[in-house]
Write a structure and sequence with these properties.
This is GST-like protein. Residues 1-87 form the GST N-terminal domain. Residues 90-212 form the GST C-terminal domain. InterPro entries: Glutathione-S-Trfase_C-like, Glutathione-S-Trfase_C_sf, Glutathione_S-Trfase, Glutathione_S-Trfase_N, GST_C, Thioredoxin-like_sf. The protein has helices at residues 10-22, 41-44, 72-83, 91-121, 127-147, 161-170, 184-194, 197-210, 217-224, and strands spanning 2-6, 26-30, 54-57, 67-70. With 234 residues, it is an alpha+beta fold. It folds into 2 domains: 2-85 and 199-224, Glutaredoxin; 91-195, Glutathione S-transferase Yfyf (Class Pi), Chain A, domain 2. Strands 2-1-3-4 form a 4-stranded mixed sheet, with helices on one face. Strand 1, helix 1 and strand 2 form a beta-alpha-beta unit. Helix 1 crosses helix 8. The radius of gyration is 18 Å and the shape is globular.
Length: 234
């Protein structure tokens, strides 16, 4: 039913978490981002921003032609609407879940991503940049920790796409130079999500693609060296 174009990154894990929780049939099509698979013409036709994940729903609810969806947040919303699951149906709960979904895609993901880049991948270690993004990641952890003080899950009592969006970006907390024990509510929530069978199945689906060599210098050029002039036309 769902074709998933995927690589085992935090954004990729978001989608396998949903699909495993919902029990939807899906097929993984690996997109090796270090090898440049994201720039192949067939992939750009469904992902004009040359990023994964992307899904193709071969049996959409309107009964029409297959639908492709790019951007991980949009995919989570699409799948929640398709299945009627993991997004509160009441207006206030849906509001909260979508707020925190957007918080992740606009804040936690980009800031933690820059944290990874300057701390791990950048050819020159720039103290200001590392300090900037480590501190901003820490601030965002604090925001989520405070929000979770009286909540089981991000949107309240029920597990939702807001949890699926944020969890994979907390998994590499050590790489982000953070300490989960400094954030007791976040730690409790993190352990709860980690122990869900759906989470464990989702991460297991990524294992065949995770045992890959370290990113080469050529791979870094592919990942980090693109400009508008260099992106292939669709």
């Amino acid at each position: 039913m769902i074709d998933l174009y995927y690589w085992p990154t935090p954004n990729g894990h978001k989608i396998t978490m949903f699909l495993e929780e919902a029990g939807l049939d899906y097929t993984i099509h690996p997109v090796d981002i270090s090898a440049g698979d994201q720039f192949k013409p067939d992939f750009l036709a469904i992902s004009p921003n040359n990023r994964m994940p992307v899904i193709i729903d071969t049996v959409p609810s309107d009964g029409g032609e297959p639908i492709s969806v790019f951007e991980s947040g949009a995919i989570l919303l699409y799948l929640a609407d398709k299945t009627g699951r993991f997004l509160p149906k009441n207006v206030r709960g849906r509001k909260t879940a979508t707020e925190w979904l957007f918080w992740q895609v606009g804040g936690l993901g980009p800031m933690a991503g820059q944290n990874h880049h300057f701390g791990i991948y950048a050819p020159s270690k720039i103290p200001y940049a590392i300090d900037r993004y480590v501190k901003e990641t820490n601030r965002l952890y604090g925001v989520l920790d405070h929000h979770l003080e009286n909540r089981t899950f991000v949107a309240g009592d029920e597990y939702s796409i807001a949890d699926m969006a944020s969890y994979p970006w907390i998994v590499p907390w050590k790489r982000q130079q953070q300490n989960l024990d400094d954030f007791p509510n976040l730690r409790r929530w993190f352990d709860t999500v980690r122990e869900r069978p759906g989470t464990q199945r989702a991460y297991a689906r990524g294992e065949p693609y995770s045992s890959r060599p370290a990113v080469t210098e050529e791979g870094k050029k592919i990942l980090f060296g693109q400009t508008g002039a260099r992106v292939p036309a669709v």
